[in-house]
């Protein structure tokens, strides 16, 4: 990430909030949800765009992806609020992969964890992990993993010992060294704490917050 971290969170509210992207990935069937630009025009790496097309079957971005991806790529914090099923998962995963693969010196497992995604449910954790595995097919040096309650602790320990560049977990602990934090379903995670801040979201909407802990470029420089 070449830009300096800015302190303000950029709020992205999908104007077409009621329409869902759920489907087989064929853009033409979902007019109003998709925009006419391409993933590469948003600034994403060509290989990543290929993966989105070939592995996921996505020919172009949804509206929320087109609105959020350039903001996240620019290094700003973002709070994205849109109807469920509008494609928010790719809106935060694609920029993370873009940044992690963009360093001249490939990151290694021993460099530690760079990004953490906090999700409110086990099922979602597994879904996000599955998407990451597909998107990372041609970026084999970026290793995804997950930690969640009810799993074998020894397996989790073994995964952590080997090193995870990108991992998801259900709870917030052990965050040292992480540069990007994504909270999915912020209102459910924040419930009982400062949940009121997100009280304006209706039940048909969900949101994620993505924060840059420090500029990833600065971190990468240390490893050169
Ligand atoms: N660019 C795209 N082109 C075609 N289909 C897409 C695109 N982006 C996402 N989808 C599909 O849309 C569906 C919903 O995406 P996703 O789960 O990311 O939405 P979401 O906004 O994160 O939903 P939720 O708020 O429920 O977590 C999925 O089936 C996904 O494969």
UniProtKB/TrEMBL annotation:
Biological function: RNA helicase.
InterPro entries assigned: DEAD/DEAH_box_helicase_dom (IPR011545), Helicase_ATP-bd (IPR014001), P-loop_NTPase (IPR027417), RNA_helicase_DEAD_Q_motif (IPR014014)
Enzyme superclass (EC): hydrolase
Highest rank taxon of the organism: Eukaryota
Family per similarity comment: Belongs to the DEAD box helicase family.
Chain location of the short sequence motif Q motif per the record: 37-66
DEAD-box RNA helicase Q domain ranges (all copies): 37-66
Matching Pfam families: DEAD
Annotated source species: Vicia faba
Keywords (A to Z) from UniProt: ATP-binding, Helicase, Hydrolase, Nucleotide-binding, RNA-binding
Ranges in a coiled coil: none
A single MF term (Gene Ontology): RNA binding
Enzyme Commission numbers on file: 3.6.4.13
Ranges of residues in domain Helicase ATP-binding: 69-163
Protein name, as recorded: ATP-dependent RNA helicase
Description of its domains: The Q motif is unique to and characteristic of the DEAD box family of RNA helicases and controls ATP binding and hydrolysis.
Region of interest called Disordered, as start-end residue ranges on this chain: 1-24
Catalysed reactions, as listed in the record: ATP + H2O = ADP + phosphate + H(+)
SUPFAM superfamilies: P-loop containing nucleoside triphosphate hydrolases
């Amino acid at each position: 990430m070449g830009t300096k971290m800015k302190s303000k969170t950029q709020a992205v509210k999908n104007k077409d909030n009621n329409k869902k992207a759920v489907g087989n990935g064929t853009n033409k069937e979902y007019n109003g949800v998709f925009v006419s630009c391409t993933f590469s025009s948003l600034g994403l790496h060509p290989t990543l765009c290929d993966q989105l097309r070939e592995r996921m079957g996505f020919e172009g971005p949804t509206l929320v992806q087109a609105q959020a991806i350039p903001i996240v790529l620019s290094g700003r914090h973002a709070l994205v609020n849109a109807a469920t099923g509008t494609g928010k998962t790719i809106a935060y995963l694609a920029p993370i992969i873009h940044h992690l693969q963009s360093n001249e010196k490939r990151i290694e497992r021993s460099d530690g964890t760079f990004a953490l995604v906090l999700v409110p449910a086990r099922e979602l954790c597994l879904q996000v992990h599955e998407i990451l595995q597909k998107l990372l097919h041609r970026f084999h040096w970026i290793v995804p993993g997950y930690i969640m309650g009810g799993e074998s602790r020894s397996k989790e320990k073994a995964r952590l010992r080997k090193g995870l560049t990108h991992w998801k977990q259900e709870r917030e602990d052990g965050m040292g060294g992480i540069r990007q934090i994504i909270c999915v379903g912020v209102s459910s995670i924040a419930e009982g704490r400062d949940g009121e801040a997100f009280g304006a979201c209706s039940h048909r909407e969900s949101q994620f917050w993505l924060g840059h802990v420090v500029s990833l470029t600065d971190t990468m420089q240390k490893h050169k």
